[in-house]
């Protein structure tokens, strides 16, 4: 039984939009609603939850500390709802026309949508189910034959998997405009490793890649906050919780609009490779091979 304190999915999506845009007006536009309607939904959601979720100021709107937590949880709920919708859709499709994909959050949010649009144009009868999870979970799902193709963002892939590079990415250190690092010209890699950061969970590809890049400077400091989605990390960082390291793909819009600032790092290479993975002992299905080819062609074009 769903608790009466749980907001509906549309309201949760609206909260995430406010977190990303920092504006009730822009969130309203994105959802095709009026700003008064958004404000009314927000009041209803705050009444259900029992705590303020959004702070309003002349400079815009930002999530409260409680709002950041709710947004992080909401992302998981919405991802589960998307998986349910994809699964229900796939039940109506012929098994030979079904492609099961698992992807790390960065790839799922910022790269796969345009690849899947191309796949849909080429194979309109193929039903695709997509699961967004961290890189370790993606590899486990591929090896367990729960999905046909996976996309990961860690520095290496585990045994039993073949892989192909499908994109190049860059991790960036970001802070809120009010953070002391915002006034610095650069931060040394050793200091970054010793700083308590707002982090993803230990098995995320982003955190694994960061640990590998800073390995010569010692283990990473204990996280200041540990959150399960990039959206939650971005929101907490923008709210002033502390520095974070995220994919440039994930924070591009925040950087463009000044919600976050990038801090240059000296002494570490934060570039990384994003890979497709599949079992070494199994041939990829035709839809999986076509998606893999689409991703590879897109990578060549981007470079």
From TrEMBL:
Entry's Gene Ontology molecular function annotations: DNA-binding transcription factor activity; transcription cis-regulatory region binding
This protein's UniProt keywords: DNA-binding, Transcription, Transcription regulation
PROSITE patterns tied to this protein: HTH_LYSR
InterPro entries: LysR_HTH_N (IPR000847), LysR_subst-bd (IPR005119), WH-like_DNA-bd_sf (IPR036388), WH_DNA-bd_sf (IPR036390)
Bilayer-crossing regions: none
UniProt-listed Gene3D superfamilies: 3.40.190.290, Winged helix-like DNA-binding domain superfamily/Winged helix DNA-binding domain
Occurrences of domain HTH lysR-type (ranges): 7-64
Stored Pfam families: HTH_1, LysR_substrate
Signal peptide residue numbers: none
Stated family: Belongs to the LysR transcriptional regulatory family.
PANTHER family: HTH-TYPE TRANSCRIPTIONAL REGULATOR, HTH-TYPE TRANSCRIPTIONAL REGULATOR CYSL
Protein name: ModE molybdate transport repressor domain-containing protein
Organism: Auraticoccus monumenti
């Amino acid at each position: 039984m769903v608790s009466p304190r749980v907001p509906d999915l549309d309201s949760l999506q609206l909260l995430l939009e406010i977190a990303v845009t920092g504006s009730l007006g822009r969130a309203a536009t994105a959802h095709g609603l009026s700003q008064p309607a958004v404000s009314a939904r927000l009041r209803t959601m705050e009444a259900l939850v029992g705590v303020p979720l959004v702070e309003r100021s002349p400079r815009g709107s930002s999530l409260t500390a409680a709002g950041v937590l709710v947004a992080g949880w909401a992302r998981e709920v919405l991802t589960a709802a998307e998986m349910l919708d994809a699964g229900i859709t796939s039940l109506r499709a012929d098994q030979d026309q079904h492609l099961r994909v698992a992807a790390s959050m960065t790839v799922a949010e910022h790269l796969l949508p345009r690849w899947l649009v191309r796949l849909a144009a080429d194979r309109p009868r193929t039903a695709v189910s997509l699961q967004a999870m961290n890189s370790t979970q993606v590899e486990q799902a591929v090896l367990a034959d729960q999905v046909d193709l996976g996309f990961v963002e860690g520095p290496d892939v585990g045994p039993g998997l073949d892989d192909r590079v499908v994109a190049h990415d860059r991790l960036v250190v970001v802070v809120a405009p009010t953070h002391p690092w915002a006034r610095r010209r650069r931060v040394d890699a050793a200091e970054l490793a010793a700083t308590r950061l707002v982090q993803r969970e230990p098995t995320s590809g982003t955190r694994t890649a960061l640990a590998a890049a800073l390995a010569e400077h010692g283990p990473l400091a204990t996280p200041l906050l540990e959150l399960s989605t990039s959206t939650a990390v971005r929101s907490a960082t923008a709210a002033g919780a502390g520095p974070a390291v995220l994919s440039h793909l994930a924070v591009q819009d925040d950087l463009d609009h000044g919600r976050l600032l990038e801090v240059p790092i000296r002494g570490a290479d934060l570039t990384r490779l994003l890979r497709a993975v599949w079992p070494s002992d199994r041939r990829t299905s035709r839809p999986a091979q076509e998606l893999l080819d689409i991703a590879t062609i897109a990578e060549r074009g981007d470079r």
